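How a chain folds remains the central question behind the approach discussed here. For one protein, we set the task of working out the structure tokens from the amino acid sequence alone. The sequence in question and its structure tokens are set out directly beneath this paragraph.

_____
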Amino acid sequence: MSATETLWIKIAEKSFGLLLLGLSLLMIYFTVTSTNVLNAYSGFFAFLSVIPLIAGVLLIIAKPPE
């Protein structure tokens, strides 16, 4: 892989990680602020919000192969 291809893959990976991180933080915010409406399902939606959070953090800290 050339240097420019590696650069674009790194940029795409980091930006997708930031997008996932922002989306999951938004999901967590809406889950926390609407716990009275969700009642018993608030834990389920909080768990579903943590999955993209972990994936986003892993994409941000991962290094693509050189």
Remarks:
- The two ends are 7 Å apart (CA to CA).
